[in-house]
Amino acid sequence: MASTLQKGKILAVIGDEDTVVGFLLGGIGQLNKARKPNFLIVDKNTTTHDIEEAFKTFVARDDVAIILINQYIAEMIRHVVDQHTASIPAVLEIPSKEFPYDPSKDSILNRAKGMFSADDFR
């Protein structure tokens, strides 16, 4: 039943050029009915406001199930990422070529850590 509810859902990507192009080459590029893409390439000219707006737009879209965002970009808009608590779309912070993944900065991972104790894994 859950798989039928997710039919037609897509990925959205916010990242540097290498990350986004890699996913586009993998076939994730889509335009919705309003001709809006499901990705944002962040470069030195992209403002924090543009990143926030893209994130908020992807969160509001009903066709997006997962948002992938480079962790260093998520840090730029951490207050907005932390406000998103819904399970769908899921927000996954990923590394980039220039910036490795740091689990201590991942708000979703930190939230999940608070849900379990060491006794849960014995």
Automatic annotation (TrEMBL):
One annotated GO molecular function: proton-transporting ATPase activity, rotational mechanism
UniProt keyword Membrane, yes or no? no
Q: What GO terms fall under cellular component here? A: proton-transporting V-type ATPase, V1 domain
* Keywords attached to this entry: Hydrogen ion transport, Ion transport, Transport
State whether keyword Transport applies.
Answer: yes
Q: Which family does it belong to?
A: Belongs to the V-ATPase F subunit family.
Record text on subunit structure and interactions:
V-ATPase is a heteromultimeric enzyme made up of two complexes: the ATP-hydrolytic V1 complex and the proton translocation V0 complex.
**What does this gene product do?**
Subunit of the V1 complex of vacuolar(H+)-ATPase (V-ATPase), a multisubunit enzyme composed of a peripheral complex (V1) that hydrolyzes ATP and a membrane integral complex (V0) that translocates protons. V-ATPase is responsible for acidifying and maintaining the pH of intracellular compartments.
What name appears for this protein in its UniProt entry?
A: V-type proton ATPase subunit F
The taxonomic lineage of its organism, from the top, reads: Eukaryota, Metazoa, Ecdysozoa, Nematoda, Chromadorea
